[in-house]
What we know:
Elements: H1 6-11, H2 14-36, H3 45-78
Amino acid sequence: MPILRVKEIREMSSEERMNKLRELRTELVRLKTMIKAGGSVENPSMIRELRKTIAKILTIEKEEKAKTAKAKKEGAKKK
C-alpha cells in the first residue's frame, strides 16, 4: 500500500477521501488482528504509516469543512 502525500490527499474529492479512509482503516484492523492472533506482519512499520495517513486524511477533511463553514458564515454576513 503506497504512502499518500498531503498534496495527493488534497487533490481528492471528499467522497474519494472517505473511501480511502475506509480502505485504510480496514487494512489497519486486519494488520492489528494478525498481530493479536500471534502472527507476524511482513512490514511492522506499515501500521505506523497507516495510522499517520488516516490522521492526515481526517485533518484535511476537517480543514475543508471548516473552510466551507467559514465561507458560508462570511457570505451570510455580507447580505
